[in-house]
TrEMBL record:
GO terms for cellular component: microtubule; microtubule cytoskeleton. Belongs to the TRAFAC class myosin-kinesin ATPase superfamily. Kinesin family. KIN-14 subfamily. It comes from Zea mays (Maize). Residues 159-453 form the Kinesin motor domain. This is Kinesin motor domain-containing protein. Transmembrane segments: none annotated. Keywords: ATP-binding, Coiled coil, Microtubule, Motor protein, Nucleotide-binding. GO terms for molecular function: ATP binding; microtubule binding; microtubule motor activity.
Length: 610
């Protein structure tokens, strides 16, 4: 029993401990269960969230799939369209290539037909060309004939032409009264004396043409164009404006501005010169050179020289064979109007540099632009030389009273262009203001005298082949003569030294010359020269190698010019000079002094003795 009791007790202890264990285990189980539930809940929540996210992502991917599907659909449509376009382009290209092939075939056929036609035409042109060559042979003859006729017309118009231009009143001079009463169609101009009344109040002048105040620059130039043509035909032409200060000389010669409408005679003349030379380029080749000098206080200065402090330039009595009257002034070759304009600008600048008061100086000095033109006839090789003087004169009232015109440097420089060989155009500029009445009348009187002077027919400086040969012969003869002269002098000296000799020097010289057949006697020469009032006996009038006709002209021109300026001094101008010795006078007689003393033109010659 005890044992049983013991066992019972043990069993009861075991049961109690087991119960305790069961309790502990059940508590642990409950805790575990609770924890698992909590975890399961958390997991559930987490899974629910993930589910939502997955659903969202799914939705988005579905959207994207839709988008991609629509884009790819669009792209595929685009590509299909492009493929269609490309296909149609290719089809078109194929068609065009077919067309091109067809047309190239037809062009080839046309070309072949054309070639055949050309061959026919070329052979017929060849025949026509032959005819043209024959006609071209005649062209030169017709051209020469034309030039002759043209010059005859020019001669009929006279080789000194005087155009009068009336300056309008300037802005601000509206109330002023004009002294111009009437301007006629045929060059008449009637001037009223504002200080007189009754009869003799008006005075009529007549010139080749009178331009009224409204005349445009182009109108004024239109009558001058033929003169410019003459320069290219080998004539010397001189254009200048004369008038009191402020009467419009510069306006007429240079123009008031640089626009084409404003261009004065200078620019228009040069433009025409180059235009005409261009139009003749198939028949003639021209070389053009320019000199520009200024005459101030009777000194000649080169306005185109680099050396500003130029020395006084010498003037040649007769122009040299190259046509230069002032050979030491620089000569600049030019090819276009622009070249000349640039040189003129340099000239103006040099004028300004050399002057302290430019305005004062420019209205007291003359500036002379000389354009030298040498032409060669491409067909027969003959040459011509012409020069164009464009002159900006000093104001007429500013001229130095004690320098007579015929002795002035201006007339010496212009000798070859005022003589019988030249064509001269003078613009008489007048101011319509009553205050300028007396100056205007004296200007018009001078111009009237100038327009009455007859210069004779102008001649061109042409040297044909035969003339060239003659010139060569003449120059070799002149050499022979000068050698003989030296021999004669030597012989005479020897004779004079030998005792008992009493030879009349002139007689023996004439005898020897007669024997050698070298022309006129010296006595005759001296007679003629003194009779003509020429105090520069022994002056050489011939240009090296001038023909007889030229020599004759050279003799006449000086006298005419002397008369021109003679009349200016109020003396009669209608007596004709006696013929002088031949121009081919032996150089042994020549005592040419060069510079201003030598006299190729009568511009330095004293008036004829009466
Ligand atoms: N035909 C014209 N029409 C309009 N204005 C003119 C005309 N002629 C001259 N003039 C004007 O008159 C003024 C004087 O002219 P310009 O300078 O040409 O005279 P000038 O005779 O050359 O004088 P100078 O002897 O001082 O050089 C200028 O203002 C010019 O523009």
């Amino acid at each position: 029993m005890v044992r049983l009791m013991q066992e019972k007790e043990n069993a009861e202890n075991t049961i109690a401990s087991l119960q305790q264990e069961i309790q502990v285990l059940s508590r642990m189980h409950e805790q575990y269960h609770e924890r698992k539930e909590t975890e399961a809940r958390q997991m559930e929540e987490h899974l629910a969230m993930r589910l939502k996210e997955a659903e969202f992502l799914l939705m988005q991917s579905e959207k994207k799939v839709e988008e991609i599907e629509s884009v790819s659909q669009l792209k595929s449509q685009l590509w299909t369209r492009k493929a269609n376009i490309f296909q149609s382009f290719m089809d078109n290209q194929k068609l065009s290539i077919k067309d091109i092939r067809i047309s190239s075939q037809s062009i080839k056929q046309e070309m072949f037909a054309l070639q055949m036609k050309w061959i026919d035409e070329i052979s017929s042109i060849g025949r026509e060309l032959k005819g043209l060559v024959d006609a071209a042979d005649n062209y030169h003859k017709v051209l020469a004939e034309n030039q002759k006729l043209f010059n005859e017309v020019q001669e009929l118009k006279g080789n000194i032409r005087v155009y009068c231009r009336v300056r309008p009143f300037l802005p601000g001079q509206d109330g002023k009264t004009t002294i111009i009463d009437y301007i006629g169609e045929n060059g008449e101009i009637l001037i009223t004396n504002p200080f007189k009344q009754g009869k003799d109040v008006c005075r009529m002048f007549k010139f080749n043409k009178v331009f009224n105040t409204h005349a445009s620059q182009a109108e004024v130039f239109s009558d001058i164009q033929p003169l410019i043509r003459s320069v290219l035909d080998g004539f010397n032409v001189c254009i200048f404006a004369y008038g009191q200060t402020g009467s419009g000389k510069t306006y007429t010669m240079s123009g008031p501005g640089t626009s084409k409408e404003d261009w004065g005679v200078n620019y228009r003349a040069l433009n025409d010169l180059f235009d005409i030379s261009l139009s003749r380029r198939n028949a003639f080749s021209y070389e053009v050179g320019v000199q520009m000098v200024e005459i101030y206080n009777e000194q000649v200065r080169d306005l185109l020289s680099n050396d500003i402090a130029q020395k006084r330039l010498g003037i040649w009595s007769t122009s040299q064979p190259n046509g230069l009257v002032v050979p030491d002034a620089s000569l600049h070759p030019v090819k276009s109007t622009l070249d000349v304009l640039q040189l003129m600008e340099i000239g103006q600048t040099n004028r300004a540099v050399g002057s302290t008061a430019l305005n004062e100086r420019s209205s007291r000095s003359h500036s002379i632009l000389t354009v030298h033109v040498r032409g060669v006839d491409l067909k027969n090789g003959s040459t011509s030389r012409g020069c164009l003087h464009l002159i900006d004169l000093a104001g007429s009232e500013r001229k130095n009273a004690h320098v007579p015109y015929r002795n002035s440097k201006l007339t010496q420089v212009l000798q070859s262009s005022l003589g019988g060989q030249a064509k001269t155009l003078m613009f008489v500029q007048i101011n319509p203001d009553t205050g300028s009445y007396s100056e205007t009348i004296s200007t018009l009187k001078f111009a009237e005298r100038v327009s009455g002077v007859e210069l004779g027919a102008a001649r061109s400086n042409k040297e044909g082949k035969d003339i060239k040969e003659l010139l060569e012969q003449v120059s070799s003869l002149k050499d022979t003569i000068s050698r003989k002269d030296m021999e004669i002098d030597q012989l005479l000296k020897n004779k004079a030294k030998s005792p008992g000799s009493s030879i009349d020097r002139n007689d023996s010289r004439q005898q020897i010359r007669r024997l050698s057949g070298t022309g006129s006697s010296e006595a005759e020469c001296e007679d003629n020269m003194s009779d003509d009032g020429c105090s520069v006996a022994g002056t050489e009038y011939s240009v090296g190698g001038a023909s007889e006709a030229t020599a004759e002209r050279m003799q006449k021109a000086p006298s005419r010019i002397a008369r021109l300026f003679h009349t200016k001094n109020g003396q009669p101008a209608n007596s004709k000079p006696k013929p002088r010795e031949s121009a081919l006078k032996p150089p042994g007689r020549t005592t040419s002094t060069g510079g201003s003393q030598a006299t190729g033109g009568s511009l330095v010659k004293p008036p004829k003795r009466r």
